[in-house]
Amino acid sequence: MIPRKNILSFFCSSHFYSKFFRYYSTYPSSFFKINSKFDSDQIYDFRSDTVTKPTDEMFDIMRNASRNDDVLDEDESTNELETYMAELTGHEAALFVPSGTMTNQIAIRAHLSTPPHSVLCDFRSHICNYEAGGIAYHSQASVTPLKPSNKLFLTCSEIESELIVTDDIHYAPTRVISLENTLNGLLFPIDEIHKISKLAKKSNIKLHLDGARLWNACAETNSSLQTFTKNFDSVSLCLSKSIGAPIGSVLVGNKEFIKTAKHLRKLFGGGWRQCGLLAAAAKFAIASNFPDNLKKSHLLTKKLSNELFNLGIHITLPVHTNMIFIDTKSINITTGELANRLALHNILIFGNNSTTTRLVLHYQIPPISIEKFIDVVANIIKEKKN
Ligand SMILES: Cc1ncc(COP(=O)(O)O)c(C=O)c1O
User: Fold this and answer.
1) 270 and 102 in contact (C-beta within 8 Å)?
2) Tens digits of residue pLDDT in 10-39
3) Which of 228, 314, 372, 380 would give a disulfide with 327, using CB separation of 3.0 to 4.6 Å?
């Protein structure tokens, strides 16, 4: 078995993250030099909500999961999760898939048939920036990335004015509109989603939602998943982000769509065999964390954001759920220096030579770490003044 410390070192290393997140860049490798004797149980990891660790209770649940072959459709725990997710989202069927990237890419591929065709989305969205160019590779589609003029979410009228619905052979018609909720932690207003859904139906365009963090949107707005999911032809929901499961995403849609998706999952190499233990862990994570633990982490996020703002740090996007985007220029420190100082207190953030970064909270970030975080920043500011 790899020692825990080595696993952590790998995931914190710049090697792992450097190419991954263009805008939040690398975590300084100095952490492990500075902090050679840390206890991994006391690490407060603000880099992402993907970092939550499976709990002992989760392992107990995994031990009792079914152990059959899902490619042969024989695994009870997997079928149970899929039925549960279909019911929760008000869709006919669901498919358990290894990653959020795979659910999104399968969904887009399943909605599209023959090129030329295109997918319209927010220019910041995961599907067009962080899925390794998957839309071009898997679906031979071009992307129409739009910049929302309100800087928060795309409006129906913005989308309508950019749809490609002409027969002119110079263009690739829009066949899919893909939204993301939350996006950078921002809530997509439900009224706007209703309008976009109507527009998509009227225009005979499929509407997909990257709902990797739809759980957060629902927890924050006290809404059921169905409030959002019923407006879409397909929705991808991640289980390995703030909901806290170790691995997996679920794609929902109608029966025919999920049948195609299942075929494509196999083609993508994502047909998994004895995955019941992961499905059981995911169902347990949903029951344990949604919505209350997410709500708590949103409250802590707002607390941290308010305190940082009061200390003079610029908060560059509104804080709706579990993410804070900061600019440390005003306190004259790079995010790399801040990361190194926080690392001395077992707090992990992404940092580099720039002054902007993203902080992400999740249910394994306790209130005590917020106090520590604030203390470190307050001390740095005090030192700079002296
Ligand atoms: C909004 C969004 N969608 C999709 C994904 C992809 O998920 P995965 O890392 O499981 O491929 C991510 C990952 O961070 C994400 O933030």
Assistant:
1) yes
2) 333 333 333 334 444 444 444 444 444 444
3) 314
The secondary structure of 342-359 as a DSSP string is HHTTTEE----SSSEEEE
C-alpha 206/C-alpha 13 separation (Å) is 39
Phi, psi of 170 (to 5 degrees): -80, -15
**47 inside domain:** no
Whether 49 is in the pocket of ligand 1, judged by its Cβ within 6 Å, is: no
Using CA positions, which residue lies closest to atom 13 of ligand 1? Answer: 100
Residues 103 and 31 in one domain: no
* 306 is a domain residue: yes
pLDDT digits (tens, 9 = 90+) for 130-178: 999 999 999 999 999 999 999 999 999 999 999 999 999 999 999 999 9
> Peptide bond preceding 291: is omega within 30 degrees of 0, i.e. cis?
yes
The answer to whether position 259 is within a domain reads yes
Residue with CA nearest ligand 1 atom 4: 100
Nearest-atom number in ligand 1 for the CA of 102 is 11
Look over the chain and give the mean of its residue pLDDT values, rounded to a whole number: 91
State whether 279 and 307 are in the same domain.
no
The whole domain housing 129 covers: 56-289
Q: Is the CB of 184 under 6 A from ligand 1?
A: no
Domain count, the chain: 2
Is there a single domain that holds both residue 266 and residue 129?
A: yes
Query: 165 near 172, Cβ under 8 Å?
Result: no
CATH number at residue 342: 3.90.1150.10
Residue pLDDT, tens place only, 265-292: 999 999 999 999 999 999 999 999 999 9
Angle at which helix 292-310 crosses helix 276-289, to 10 degrees, equals 60
